[in-house]
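In response to a reviewer's request, we include the raw inputs and outputs for one of the modeled complexes. The two entities were modeled together in a single run.
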Amino acid sequence: MGTHRENADAQAAGAAAGAVREPDWERVRGDFPVLHRLVRGRPLVYFDNAATTQKPAIVIRTECEYYGTCTANVHRAIHFMAEEATRRYEAVRAAAARFVDAPGAASTVVTRGTTEAINLVARGWAIPRLKPGDRILVTGMEHHSNLVPWQMAARATGAELRSIPVDDAGELDLRRLPELLGNRTRLLALTHVSNVLGTVNPVRQLADAAHAAGAAVLVDAAQSVAHMPVSMAALGADFLAFSGHKMCGPTGVGFLCARPERLEEMEPVFGGGEMIARVEETESTWAEIPHRFEAGTPNIAGVIGMGAAFEVFSELGMDAVQRRDAMLTRVALEQLAAVPGLRIVGAAPDRIGVVAFALEDAHPHDVAQLLDRDGIAIRAGHMCAQPLLRRFGHAALNRASLAFYNRPEEFDVLAESLVRARRALAGGRE
Amino acid sequence: MYSPSRWSARGGPSPVDANDLYQEVLLDHFRHPRNHGTLADGEVLADEENPNCGDRIRLAVRLAPDGTVADIRFDGRGCAISTASASIMTAHARGRPAGELSDLADRFSAMMRAEIPFEEGGVEDLAALAGVRSFPLRVKCATMAWHALKKALARAAEKPFSGRS
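The model returned the following C-alpha cells for the whole complex.
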C-alpha cells in the first residue's frame, strides 16, 4: 500500500538549504493520539484539516487538568483556584494576541470561534453604524460565516453588499476594485486564505485600498493561522478573527483581535454577567474592553487548553510549519493531478494545502464514502461556500486538506484510493 | 485523567463496511438506472433537492384512470445512492396503485431513519439500500426520490385523471 517515499526528503532539502533545523515531524505526529487509531481496519489518513485539526495530547491533557486541578470561575471569585484559573485564562488571551501579532490582549475578545467573532463585529460594529447606501464589500470566496453575517447586517441597515469576483484560477479579480470600493464602503470583510481553493489573498494590498477609501478591514484568518505566520499588523487588519480548533486547539474557542479604537466603537451584543460595570434597575454601564463582549461564563477549560496549542505552534515555529506545509502541498498537487479524471479547482500560485477537486463521473459524496472504507477522511459537499462553488459550476466538490502532521506517503494512499473509487463507480462503463 | 491507550484501543461504533453500501445491485442501478428520462405528456411533476450536495431529482408520473401508475420517469443529478434509490423506486411503482405507493414511501423513509425494522416488502432490489441506514448522512440521498414520489402522488390526487386538461 503506497510507495515508501521517505519523510527524509524534506529534511534533506531543509538541511541542504543551510542552517535551518527542522522539527522531527514523525515525533511531532506521534504526539497526536487520534493519528494512531485504525479506521475500518486501516490506519487513519486524515485529510479534513480545513474542517478541524486533530489535537495533540498536551492540549487534551491541559484542558482536562483545569477540571482536575483548578475548576473555578474566572474573574469574579476571590479565592486561590479562581485566581489561578483567571491567570491561566488571561495568559491565553495574551498568547492569542502575540500569536497573530495583534495590538494586544486588551483588545482581544475570546469567542466560541471565528463565526462568533465575525457575528460580533456584524452586530456590534456594523449594524449600529451602517446607513442605507453604505456598502459592505466581501469577496466571492468567503466561507458562509464571513458572508451570511454581512447579508444580515445589510438587511438590517439598508446597506448594500458587494463582492469582489474570483477569476478562473481562483484568485481575486482586482480590476474593478476601485469601483467596488467606491466612496461608501464602510467595511471590507475578506478571508486570508480560501477554505476551498487554498488561495492566499493579497490582504495587505486590499486593506490599503480599503483604508484609503475610508473603510475598515476585517480578516477571516480561520484557514491561515495553522499554516503560515500571521501578523495582523502586516496584514493591515482592523479586525482579525480565528478559531482554535483549526489549529490543534479545542472546539468552542476563538478570538476576535481588534485595533483598540475599533473595539471601543463596538456595542456589546450579549448582555449578562461579566460584561457590565454598574447595573441599575433599568440600565447598566459596560465593563472595559474586551470584557464587555464576553457575557457569561466562558469556555474556560477550552481556552486554557488552547494555550497549549499556541505553545505547540510556537515551539515548532511558524516558518517551519510553513515549509512543511509547502512540501506537503507540492506532493498533494502532484499526486492528485496524476489521478485519471481528476480536476483540481483552483490554481493560484500562492496557496496552501487545501485542495478541492472533482472526480469525473463520480459524485463527491460517493467518492468520500468510498475513500472512507480505506480509512481516509476527506470532505464532500459545498464546503460552506455555495456561491464560490456555483462560480466554478459545481454544487459539490471533494476537498483534501493537510496539516503539518500528515505524511507525504499518505497522498499515495489517497491517490490509489481515488483511482479505485472511480473504477468502482464507473464499473462497466470504463 | 486523559489516557491515550484507553481511548485509542477502542474503535468506537463501527457501522457496516462501506463495501456493503456499494454492493453490486446498487451500483448496477446507478450505472444503468431504470426509468431515467422525462415523460412527454400527461405527467405530474415533482422536484426535490438536497442543498447539502446539490442533488436534484425531477419525477414525472402519469396515472391511469384506475389510479395506478401508468408511467414514471426520473431525471436530475445525484450520487450513486440517490440514483439507485430512484431507479429501484420507479421500477417498483409502475402498475401499482397510488395509495399503496404513498404508504410505501412513508414506510421506506421510516425504515431508512431506522424507526422501524427494514423489510423488503416485495420491492425488488430494495435490500440493496438497507446498508444506508448505517450512514446517517446518506439517508437523505436514499429518501429523496421517495419524497418526490409522495409529492407527485399528492399532486396527482388533486387532479384524478391526470393528463393535460
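As requested, we also summarize the result in words. The radius of gyration of chain B is 18 Å. The first helix of chain B runs from residue 4 to 9.
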